[in-house]
Design a protein that fits this description.
By secondary structure, the chain is of the alpha/beta class. It has 14 helices and 21 strands. Helix content is 29%, strand content 18%.
Length: 509
């Protein structure tokens, strides 16, 4: 482990704050520069720097993160025992900071090595996808993918793999519901994702979510690189597996012949994600990713922020950046939808932070959201999309998704994202085929402990030996390298087959 004892014991994030953040575990009675600690303070947790009366606001990042549930003395640990959630009461200003995206001149914009598809989209990977219309075709689809995982592709080395996208729904679901619409958007979006060179759609035959209806509704063109079949029509599981394997084997020479060529960064759509967050997420990795996202956008690419419950309380920072009031209103409409959704399900938007987030020092969703929104950088907000809608507007955009990472990423990839950057403080380890996922650590200790899973470390920002700008530039260069064919650590382990999780909403009948 590295020696970080030279780092300051605490960090004040804004002059108005009445708490500071511990950069390491601090014993009771320690002088941390602003106050004496009243008791042991875990790393990443908050310390009051002056008395805070019961009911008064607790400030971090210069923003309200909750109210004191009892009197808090200077030097005390501020966390679950004395910090209460409150409904967000911030004022929302629309489009006051929005404007044209400050793009770099075209001759200064970076390129990457990608796969140009016939529809003009650009892939960062060259996968074959098997998309299931219903859970009933999942076993057959996995059997086909497992055949190639076991037997490989022979001399066809330019194929990244066969991915079976299986799920737990597709039937016994009312056709006029949000859940049905979301599923169909996800499946059609994955069929169009440019990281797939070819797609095979497999259904059972009698399900609600018919393959033929899906193809027609979303204008998917059947042909050599998009094939469909149903188990019942082909005469059973064995015949379907054999037919699917035969179709894919016939496609291998054509798919293997597709080569990477220089492509503009306008071909990149980067999903911005955080999971297993800690108190350092909003101080190190998330602002660094925000800096990298700004670079992607300035070079002509698209950065997609998501996880609506995890921007709650910080959405006012985004409405200010909207380029028009209408875009800001779309974001607020999604926030209102979430208020209604959680209420009718006897839940609340503060059903977050998670247990691990709280252990890492995050107390309320307001605090978590202020750190999470930092991933979105500073570019103008160009559009707001519903779950799994195709992202067609370049620049910085937002997609409405749950905070649950696999569901959120599934929506972003369905929207066309061909790259994911995922910050984590506790140590999230998922892969998300067909999109490569760069893992970014928020703190040194977790990075060193889980170094085999973390691609980039931003923890040195805390001790001053790194900066947000330098770390963000490294993330940006890593995005270009991975998009051009370098492998993430999770890809090296062949992770990512089990994180396809469409958002299930509503009754199962």
């Amino acid at each position: 482990m590295s020696d970080h004892s030279a780092a300051p014991a605490v960090i004040r994030l804004h002059p108005l704050d009445n708490v500071v953040v511990a950069t390491r575990a601090i014993e009771a009675g320690q002088d941390v520069g602003e106050v004496l600690t009243a008791h042991f303070i875990p790393s990443g947790h908050k310390i009051a720097v002056r008395p805070i009366k019961k009911g008064d606001a607790v400030l971090k990042y210069g923003q309200v993160i909750g109210t004191a549930s009892c009197d808090i003395q200077a030097g005390e640990h501020v966390h679950l025992q004395n910090l209460a959630m409150l409904d967000s009461a911030v004022s929302h200003e629309f489009a006051v900071d929005g404007g044209p995206t400050p793009l770099l001149p075209e001759n200064e914009r970076r390129m990457f090595q990608g796969y140009l598809r016939p529809d003009g989209l650009v892939g960062t990977r060259n996968y074959i996808g098997i998309i299931t219309s219903v859970n009933c075709s999942a076993t057959v689809s996995r059997a086909v993918a497992d055949h190639f995982k076991t037997n490989g592709f022979g001399n066809y080395s330019n194929i990244d793999g066969v991915v079976a996208l299986t799920h737990g729904t597709g039937c016994a679901i009312p056709m006029n519901t949000e859940g049905y619409q979301y599923l169909r958007r996800v499946l059609s979006g994955y069929a169009k994702n440019p990281n797939f060179a070819a797609v095979l759609m497999i259904g059972l035959g009698c399900e609600t979510n018919q393959v033929s209806h899906l193809v027609k509704a979303f204008e998917l063109e059947e042909g050599p690189l998009l094939r469909t079949m149903t188990i019942q029509k082909l005469g059973g599981t064995r015949k379907t597996i054999e037919e699917a394997i035969s179709i894919i084997e016939d496609l291998l020479p054509e798919i293997n012949a597709i080569k990477r060529t220089p492509q503009p960064l306008s071909g990149l759509k980067v999903a911005l994600q955080c999971g297993g967050s800690d108190a350092y997420s909003g101080i190190t990795a998330n602002p660094a990713l925000g800096f990298a996202a700004d670079l992607v956008v300035r070079h002509g690419g698209t950065a997609v922020l998501s996880e609506t419950p995890e921007i709650y309380g910080a959405e006012h920072l985004l409405t200010r950046r909207a380029t028009t009031p209408a875009i800001a209103e779309k974001l607020m409409a999604r926030i209102e939808w979430w208020r209604n959704y959680t209420t009718r399900n006897d839940a609340e938007l503060n059903n977050n932070p998670s247990h691990g987030n709280k252990e890492g020092g995050l107390t309320t969703i307001l605090e978590k959201s202020l750190g999470a929104v930092a991933k979105g950088g500073s570019m103008p907000l160009m559009e707001v999309y519903e779950y799994a809608e195709l992202v067609t507007t370049p620049g910085f955009v937002f997609m409405d998704t749950p905070g649950y990472d696999p569901v959120a990423v599934t929506g972003q990839v369905a929207g066309g994202c061909n790259m994911i950057v995922f910050t984590t403080g506790r140590g999230s380890v998922s892969g998300f085929k067909p999109a490569p996922c760069i893992k970014v650590a928020t703190n040194n200790e977790m990075y060193e402990h889980m170094i085999e899973d973390m691609d980039i470390n931003c923890g040195k920002i805390i001790d001053g030996s790194d900066s947000i700008e330098a770390a963000g530039t490294r993330i940006f260069e890593k995005i270009i390298a991975i998009a051009s064919g370098d492998r993430t650590l999770s890809e090296g382990y062949n992770y990512g087959d089990n994180e396809f999780v469409p958002w299930q909403i509503g009754a199962v009948t």
